Amino acid sequence: MNTATAPRAILADDERLMREQLRARLAEVWPELQIVAEAKNGLEAVELVKAHRPDIVFLDIRMPGLTGVEAARQIAQLALDDDSDGEGDGEHDEVLLPEIVFITAYDQYAVEAFEQGVADYVLKPAERARLEVTVGRIKKRLAARAEGRDAPADVAPAQPLQQILHQLQARMSGQAPQYLKWIQANVGSTIQMIATDEVLFFVSDEKYTRVQTAGVEALIRKPIKELVDELDPARFWQIHRSTLVNVNAVASVVRDYRGRQIVSVKGSNEKLEVSRSYTGLFKGM
User: What are the angstrom distances between the C-alpha of 204 and each of 48, 109, 112, 222, 249?
Assistant: First the structure.
């Protein structure tokens, strides 16, 4: 994400007239904003985000191929997948998540979730007054990022991104999500069933994911990007492209000499680094 120049955005909506209408409204309320590309579906949106690295993505919540929520999940992973192996200088080794704004026709369940503050949204057709509210929130968050500080409380997301997307997906499908309760993992030469409630954190390398409890260290072949969708996001937070931590196991969070947040875990001597994209999870640290 580039905060040094004029902000850049991508519009994604399968209806051309809706894209044109939103583009025109944005030109009125945010003339500095550059619309660098437009997508007709969720798959195109993800590819365009890879190519352009925008500051903001406007996603129609219901699109063919990938819904806006599914596209947002993949976009959220892009920044983490671009993170380095942690051996760089720590200043330019990862790409920040773009601000995500959902575009929706009136949908009672989705709008209720939006109004509770879990995500930014624009109703179709985009009305100037409501769009100005969303733009004002985004400007404050982008300014905070540029200055290396947390977003003000009045514009900060109410929940971690994983929880936001899971909640929206559940409301759209009308079904309560089912989460993993057990992990089948290799412990030495044996296979052991581990209750997810007992897991302190998951850490991945190129081939395996380590499952750490207070007394057991085990290995599975499932990558973090799959576990994110299978574990309860209210309990397990993704704090890095390679790390999920059990919130109940977090003992403390401190900043190191580079300014990075470091998580200490109850029942373990291991220290877990928080990616810049997820520093907002621990506000005020």
Answer: 27, 35, 36, 9, 18
Q: CA-CA distance, 253 to 272, in Å (whole number)?
A: 9
Integer angstrom CA distances of residue 149 from 141, 159, 259, 280: 9, 18, 11, 9
> Is residue 174 scored above 50 in pLDDT?
yes
Q: How far apart are CA 154 and CA 176, in angstroms?
A: 29
Mean pLDDT score of the chain: 83
Q: What is the pLDDT of residue 245?
A: 95
Neighbours of 188 (CB within 10 A): 9
Domains (range + CATH), the chain: 8-173 (3.40.50.2300), 182-282 (2.40.50.1020)
| The pLDDT of residue 90 | 40
Q: Which helix (H) or strand (E) holds 58?
A: strand 56-60
Overall pTM > 0.70: yes
